[in-house]
TrEMBL record:
This is NIPSNAP domain-containing protein. It comes from Bradyrhizobium japonicum.
Amino acid sequence: MPIVQFTRFKTDKVEETVQIIRQAKKIFEKHGAEFLRLSRFHTGHWAGELLVTTRYANWEVYGKVQEAVSKDPEFAQLQADGMKIAELQGRNIAVSIDL
């Protein structure tokens, strides 16, 4: 069952944050994530916030990617840079249901 992680960020430096997330996409996909996508809320309670969505084939792959990313020095630097200009608002994990 695919695993999807949703992470929301609030920032007033959207373009800079997009550039950081663009680089993070390469790292996550290199380590095995099926994809990393970026969206921006235009309505509702989270209007203006950014949503990063990553998808993994299953829990095993999710764990392997998380471990690899946690040890990746390039990602550590990106994360440090990102936290200077964006604030983490929330993170959720969803497990797909086969229909």
